[in-house]
UniProtKB/TrEMBL annotation:
Cofactor requirements of the protein: pyridoxal 5'-phosphate
Organism ancestry: Eukaryota, Fungi, Dikarya, Ascomycota, Pezizomycotina
Protein's organism: Neocucurbitaria cava
Protein name: Branched-chain-amino-acid aminotransferase
GO biological process terms on file: L-leucine biosynthetic process; L-valine biosynthetic process
Keyword Secreted attached: no
UniProt region (Disordered), positions on chain: 31-62
Recorded catalytic activity of this chain's protein: L-valine + 2-oxoglutarate = 3-methyl-2-oxobutanoate + L-glutamate; L-isoleucine + 2-oxoglutarate = (S)-3-methyl-2-oxopentanoate + L-glutamate; L-leucine + 2-oxoglutarate = 4-methyl-2-oxopentanoate + L-glutamate
Keywords: Amino-acid biosynthesis, Aminotransferase, Branched-chain amino acid biosynthesis, Pyridoxal phosphate, Transferase
Length: 454
């Protein structure tokens, strides 16, 4: 059944107004400093602020904001051993580093002083809000050991701003993204030297900032207590997807996200319900689900990654196409954004200097397009020989070439010009690797934040 459209009585606020107003109030109470930046406020609400009369200043006392300078450090007296590269222990994704960061928030006082402490279990009441109402969000980041010996983060400020948007979408407290980034840097500086030694150039640790509602009360209402924590986890070396991944297009009974929902936010509720379909896809020999939406089978995401296609239009123009963000059902991925920015600066056929845009490769320049498109467009391009390549992109998969898409009983074979990958996916991947690992002349790129090791 379609959602019921509600008409506000007496010309009242629309549902969109209510969502924005609710987030605005959360900012006002838990991080009023964030309301000083209109651009940031707009980005975290994912909708433009409505026209409204100026509200009178509140006399409500301001709660303590998140402040990384107040961090209290307690170092582990039982350090863990670092798993060997390629070991089953590393691949288990269960081994974390010696320390973690925590910060508690309450509706009465705001943010407590953060702590850096030994890694260990978190105590939660069985009635904790996050266990019942999916009041939980997270980010996925990586700490890289560069080929130049330095530790780096890749555009971490974008992850921190996106996490602020996610927390506000599910009624969790706000914070200054810069303070979260300082806490992440502190943890990386503390554990990075041991867990990513210099002889492991090209390796990484996975960073998982998380916020959960720890309020120990049953009841469908805004949580009155929350816990922010950050951990570093060992992952196996970045998988070789050079053979191409196979996608199973979602069926009519599946839907990952919908307009007016929360598909644009990185919240736990986006992922749990997708695991059934993902498991079935793998049983049938596919790596992930290609998520479609609506009767026209609009393409949204590939698994938990953004989807890109390179094709020629019927008029012969070469395009790099990915879903736009207008419907708010696609995640604004950091890798996605970076690919688009790199492509526009180095490959864009519409750029004034397009003749020199491809000096770092022999690739033909192309048009960069963010728009709605569907699986039938892919089918038609493949049938007419216009499909050039496709790839998925995200922090976990990085840039993974796609070799096949199965849709309604038929396989769509996707070309891979270099045998194991498409030419554009391979080139873009190498550009990003250079920034992340400080190689190929990218040691000083502005997207790579160097961490000073303790």
């Amino acid at each position: 059944m379609a959602p019921i459209a509600l008409t506000p009585p007496n010309g009242g606020e629309s549902v969109t107004d209510l969502t924005h107003a609710g987030i605005e109030q959360a900012l006002l109470k838990s991080a009023p400093s964030q309301l000083k930046s209109a651009s940031l406020t707009n980005s975290i609400t994912a909708t433009p602020p409505p026209e409204r009369e100026t509200q009178p200043e509140t006399t409500e006392p301001t709660l303590a904001e998140l402040d990384a300078s107040k961090i209290q450090c307690t170092y582990s007296e039982s350090p863990r051993s670092v798993p060997a590269v390629g070991s089953a222990e590393m691949a288990s994704q269960k081994v974390c580093t010696d320390h973690m960061v925590q910060a508690r928030w309450t509706v009465e006082s705001g943010w407590d002083a953060p702590t850096l402490q030994p890694y260990g279990p978190i105590a939660l009441a069985p009635t904790a809000s996050c266990l019942h109402y999916a009041t939980e969000c997270f980010e996925g980041m990586k700490l890289y050991r560069g080929h130049d010996g330095k530790l780096r983060l890749f555009r971490p400020e974008l992850n921190c701003k996106r996490m602020l948007m996610s927390t506000n979408r599910i009624a969790l407290p706000a914070f200054d993204p810069k303070e979260l980034l300082k806490l992440i840097v502190k943890l990386c500086a503390t554990d990075g030297k041991k867990w990513l030694p210099k002889d492991r150039a090209g390796q990484f640790l996975y960073i998982r900032p998380t916020m959960i509602a720890s309020d120990p009360a049953l009841g469908v209402e805004r949580p009155k207590e929350a816990l922010l924590f950050v951990i570093l986890c060992c992952f196996a070396p970045m998988g070789d997807m050079s053979g191409g991944i196979k996608l199973l297009a979602s069926q009519d009974d599946m839907c990952r996200a919908w307009p007016g929902g929360f598909g644009y936010a990185k919240v736990g509720a986006n992922y749990g319900p997708s695991l059934v379909a993902q498991g079935e896809a793998r049983k049938r020999g596919y790596h992930q689900i290609l998520w479609l939406f609506g009767e026209d089978c609009t393409i949204t995401e590939a698994g938990a990654s953004n989807f890109f296609v390179v094709w020629r239009t019927k008029e012969g123009s070469l395009q790099l196409v990915t879903a736009d963000l207008n419907g708010r059902i696609v995640l604004d991925g950091v890798t996605r954004r970076s690919i688009l920015e790199l492509a526009r600066s180095r490959l864009n056929s519409e750029a004034p200097s397009s003749s020199s845009a491809t000096t770092e490769s022999d690739l033909e320049s192309l048009e960069i397009v963010e728009r709605k498109f569907n699986i039938f467009d892919i089918e038609e391009a493949a049938r007419e020989g216009r499909l050039v390549e496709a790839f998925a992109a995200g922090t976990a998969w990085f840039v993974a070439p796609i070799s096949q898409i199965h849709f309604r009983g038929k396989d769509i074979d996707v070309p891979m010009a270099k045998g194991n990958a498409g030419a554009y996916a391979s080139t873009i991947r190498s550009w990003l690797q250079g920034i992340m690992w400080g190689s190929d002349g990218m040691e000083s790129h502005e997207w790579g934040r160097v961490i000073d090791e303790e």
